[in-house]
């Protein structure tokens, strides 16, 4: 069973993910149909960043996953037997 602290952290992560998903969805799907001079555009970055930021995040994720796999592989290799 999860403790109260674990549940609080889990709910926080789910809430943050939901907020981020909603923000990005509005930014990418809704804003192109809203006039450029509308006040809602002041709450969002320029549209170029809607492609750049996820690309950079994906590259960083791949870097961390590759580093993790490399470290685990390096630590688990067996020494060669020498006769």
TrEMBL record:
Subcellular location: Endoplasmic reticulum membrane
InterPro entries (UniProt xref): DPM2 (IPR009914)
Record's bilayer topology term: Multi-pass membrane protein
Entry's transmembrane regions: 9-31, 51-74
Pfam families for this protein: DPM2 (PF07297)
Pathway: Protein modification; protein glycosylation
Top-rank lineage group of the source organism: Eukaryota
Chief place of localization: endoplasmic reticulum
Keyword line: Endoplasmic reticulum, Membrane, Transmembrane, Transmembrane helix
Role of this protein: Regulates the biosynthesis of dolichol phosphate-mannose. Regulatory subunit of the dolichol-phosphate mannose (DPM) synthase complex; essential for the ER localization and stable expression of DPM1. Part of the glycosylphosphatidylinositol-N-acetylglucosaminyltransferase (GPI-GnT) complex that catalyzes the transfer of N-acetylglucosamine from UDP-N-acetylglucosamine to phosphatidylinositol and participates in the first step of GPI biosynthesis. May act by regulating the GPI-GNT complex. Regulatory subunit of the dolichol-phosphate mannose (DPM) synthase complex; essential for the ER localization.
Assembly, per entry: Component of the dolichol-phosphate mannose (DPM) synthase complex composed of DPM1, DPM2 and DPM3; in the complex interacts directly with DPM3. Component of the glycosylphosphatidylinositol-N-acetylglucosaminyltransferase (GPI-GnT) complex composed at least by PIGA, PIGC, PIGH, PIGP, PIGQ, PIGY and DPM2. Interacts with PIGA, PIGC and PIGQ.
Family, similarity comment: Belongs to the DPM2 family.
Protein name: Dolichol phosphate-mannose biosynthesis regulatory protein
Upper classification of the organism: Eukaryota, Metazoa, Chordata, Craniata, Vertebrata
């Amino acid at each position: 069973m999860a403790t109260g602290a674990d549940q609080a952290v889990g709910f926080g992560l789910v809430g943050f993910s939901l907020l981020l998903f909603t923000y990005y969805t509005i930014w990418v799907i809704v804003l192109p149909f809203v006039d450029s001079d509308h006040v809602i555009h002041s709450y969002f970055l320029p549209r170029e960043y809607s492609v750049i930021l996820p690309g950079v995040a994906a590259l960083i994720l791949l870097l961390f996953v590759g580093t993790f796999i490399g470290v685990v592989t390096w630590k688990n290799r067996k020494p060669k037997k020498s006769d």
